[in-house]
Amino acid sequence: MKIKKRYGKHGGYLPHCVDRAVKRHIKKEEVNDPEYYIRVDDKYFIKNEAIASDSFKYAGFGAFGFLLLALIVATLKNESINYFFVSLFFLVGCLSIIYYYTHQKKELILDRMSGNITFPNYFYGKAFTIPFKDCLAAWSMKNVGSAPTPPSLSLLHPNGYTSTDVMGGDVLEDWTFMVWYMDKNRPLPPGTAFDEYRLQDFERRKAEGFPKPLYPGSFATPERTPSQHKERKIIGGW
User: Fold this and answer.
1) How far apart are CA 142 and CA 177, in angstroms?
2) Residues 156-215: pLDDT tens digits?
């Protein structure tokens, strides 16, 4: 499934390339926190993208709390109860909590071996799974004003119009990390979370003859040791 392109062949989208050093060094101890990273190894990078969905839980319990407080105040003051007001907040609370506990998993899944990426849809929509080479990424600014949020990395939906924000932090940094990780012909990106998998990933690429990178790059991605890098250069020629 390819994404419909809105701005021509390349216009408006970030290129699939490794053109800068990756500063996102995921630490081994960080992957033990499922609130952020669900799986990080040489086969899959799975990040929890449900943090925004957590706001529905807080909104639901907040609506119930506000409603309870309003009813207590009205009772103490012996005032009449506005049943429309009560019904509205009760409905908001119920729908928010129901959505929180029933919505689909919101995960960003990078499948390094198959070359596919899976990213969330809106609300109950089914997640999108497409070849990473067909994934279109761009900058996203969700609001403006005196205190706008920082830009986010946004992945375009197959319809070519809507999109999902992922990762968070630095747009170019996040995208470069994703391209680097999804290029299975390159070494794994920096970070202690990948260290225990580097040798087996090296041996896999060696058995394949160290094929050249899938995506271009102006930034060198050396092996972990000089001897491994020399071996790659002799066998693979890069």
Assistant:
1) 23
2) 999 888 899 999 778 999 999 999 999 999 999 999 999 999 999 999 999 999 999 999
- Alpha carbon distance 56, 124 (integer Å): 13
Q: What is the dihedral of CA 5, 9, 10, 16, to 10 degrees?
A: 80
What residues contact residue 198 under an 8 Å CB cut-off, 6+ apart?
Answer: 42, 187, 188, 224
The helix (run of H) or strand (run of E) holding residue 162 is: none
Is the alpha carbon torsion for 215, 218, 219, 225 positive or negative?
Answer: positive
Please tell me the pTM assigned to this model: 0.80
Measured between alpha carbons, how far is 187 from 175 in angstroms, rounded to an integer? 17
Residue ranges in the chain assigned as alpha helix (H): 54-76, 83-102, 171-182, 198-207, 226-236
Locus of tokens 């706008």: 148
Give dist(CA 228, CA 238) in Å, integer: 12
Give 62: exposed, middle or buried? Use CB within 10 Å, 0-12, 13-18, 19+.
Answer: middle
